[in-house]
Design a protein that fits this description.
Elements: H1 2-17, H2 24-57, H3 61-84, H4 90-115, H5 123-143, E1 151-153, H6 157-171, H7 174-179, H8 185-201, E2 205-207, H9 216-234, H10 236-265, H11 267-275, E3 281-282
Parallel strand pairs: 1-3
Antiparallel strand pairs: 1-2
Helix pairs in contact: 2-3, 2-4, 3-4, 3-6, 4-5, 4-6, 5-8, 6-10, 9-10, 10-11
């Protein structure tokens, strides 16, 4: 009887093992696709950044500026896709930094030099901007790449590049021509380039713009983001540069205020205020 049961067990095991087997290569192919998808958006970012450079060489400054903004959209998409698909990788992070240096460093710097700066030596300021962005991206990768943060330490490279790029479309609007054309832009532009370079390599905290519905600050951030998107949709050339300028100057002004609090209340309280209970400061 025991022998019969043993034979029956072997036949049952044979029937079970004869069923469809999982293909081990299918999981690897799926994982490879997950890793490739964010990199595809990153290369799209590079494509628009390089196109912007070519457009600046051809004197098509308006097109060059909006191509930088398209590169920023693809930069945002590759981060969201990598997060949602768990496709973050060291390779993707390094590729993203290299591409950002082209799209938000080289492209806006060349556009600014070609459109606004006339002095022979002014290219050095644009070179300093690109160098500062390279340092900022390298520091980010070494210190704390990965993970969701509430603040960036130093001006984010896409914001710095978009600020420079969108100055040209803004300068062609009726609003600019009526109210701002008389300002000393020959001085403002090079000073802005240097200031952006300094802010990128600084430790000035800038909000990561992660709005939501949980908490008063998150809801206020969501309302502000929606209002900004509506303004940009209605009048992009008139509103996008002022919004970026507000982001840059607000972070700096906030840092000055927090520096005063740092001296009065102590550094521990300032760091607690910046990091909050549900996040941390990002470089």
């Amino acid at each position: 009887m025991d022998a019969t049961a043993e034979r029956s067990g072997r036949r049952g095991a044979t029937r079970r093992s004869s069923g469809p087997r999982a293909d081990p290569t299918r999981g690897r192919r799926r994982r490879r696709a997950v890793l490739v998808l964010p990199s595809a958006f990153t290369l799209g970012n590079l494509f628009f950044g390089f196109w912007s450079v070519i457009s600046s060489f051809r004197g098509r400054f308006d097109l060059a500026a909006w191509l930088v903004m398209l590169a920023a959209v693809f930069d945002w998409l590759d981060g969201r896709v990598a997060h949602l698909s768990a496709g973050d990788s060291a390779f993707g992070g390094e590729l993203d930094s290299l591409v950002d240096l082209v799209s938000f460093g080289m492209a806006p710097a060349i556009l600014t030099y070609a459109a606004f700066l006339r002095e022979e030596w002014s290219w050095l300021m644009c070179g300093a901007f690109v160098g500062a962005m390279a340092v900022r991206l390298a520091r980010f990768n070494v210190e704390q790449a990965g993970g969701a943060k509430r603040y960036f330490l130093g001006l984010p490279s896409p914001a710095a590049g978009a600020f420079l790029a969108m100055l040209y479309p803004f300068s062609t609007t009726a609003l600019f021509q009526r109210w701002l054309a008389g300002w000393p832009w020959a001085t403002i532009v090079p000073v802005s380039v240097v200031a952006l370079a300094v802010l990128m390599v600084s430790h000035v905290p800038y909000a990561a713009l992660r709005p939501g519905l949980r908490g008063r600050r998150a809801r206020l951030g969501l309302a502000g983001l929606v209002a900004a998107l509506v303004l940009v949709a209605v009048a992009p050339e008139e509103t996008l540069f002022p919004i970026l300028a507000f982001y840059v100057m607000f972070g700096f002004a906030r840092a000055l205020g927090m520096g005063l609090v740092d001296r009065l209340a102590g550094r521990a309280e300032v760091e607690a205020e910046l990091s909050g209970s549900d996040g941390e400061v990002e470089a």
